[in-house]
Every structure is written in C-alpha cells, then in structure tokens.
Give the backbone structure.
Amino acid sequence: MQSSRPPLCPSAQPGMVNCVAFGVIQGTSTEPRVAWIERPIPVTEDLLALTGPVPPTQVLRLAAPCQEDACCHFDGTDCQLAAKLVQILPSVVGSLPACQIRPDCRWFRQEGNAACERCPQIVTYYVNPTEELSWAATP
Ligand code: SF4
C-alpha cells in the first residue's frame, strides 16, 4: 500500500537529510543480496563508522527523501534509474522482500513489484559493476 508521504529514494547517500538504513548487503561480491532490517535505523556518524574501511553504501542500503530535480536520474516525472534497473536486471526473488520502506519507496511507486523483485541485488556503491549496472547508473 502506498502512502501520501513524499517518496523515498531507496539508493540514497549518507549525507542526505533524514537518511535511514533499511538493508544490509550480504551474499557475495558477484551475487550480492540485501537483508532487510526489521526497523529502519536513522543514519548517524556512529552507524556510518561501523562500515569502515569500506564506504557505507557498499554495506548498507540507505533511504532518504527523493531529491527529484536535484538528482541526475530524475527526468521530471520518473526515476530513470529505477526504470532501467527493471528493464535490464532479472528478478531474483519469488516473492516480495520484507522491506519496511515499501509504502514510501519511489522505485516501488513507479515500477511496482518488478522493482522489488530486482532490488535485492542492488548495491549503491558497487566496486565492479556489470556492464548492465554501469549502463543503468549512467544518467
Ligand atoms: S524497490 Fe521494493 S524492495 Fe527495494 S527498497 Fe523499494 S520497496 Fe523496498
């Protein structure tokens, strides 16, 4: 169910206002999988320090209010990153992940279940992205 609240970006950066951690990257470097946090945690300096020496976005999935026109992926209506990810990536789950931000997630609002079926393989800071991910991340 969607809410009337402003949408959240589910691949946010730690410096964004009202940022929360909602997932932890598990799996392997070639096959990452997000484990969803039962209750999203506000991002603090202490939390970010825990991921050192790697960048927080290599370990955590963060959400924050969508920056819309300030983001290179927003075309004025849609998040083109979400649109591309749904277009090029395979579904990796048989049912929707237990994600706590779903009612507010921009990707879900825009792409529906297809976004959630692909989301578990998304790492915001990917060290060796595949060609497909590089293409998707290029505005
Ligand atoms: S796309 Fe789906 S699984 Fe991913 S953050 Fe949004 S609601 Fe959660």
Q: What stands out?
A: The radius of gyration is 14 Å. The beta strands are 8-9, 20-27, 32-42, 60-65.
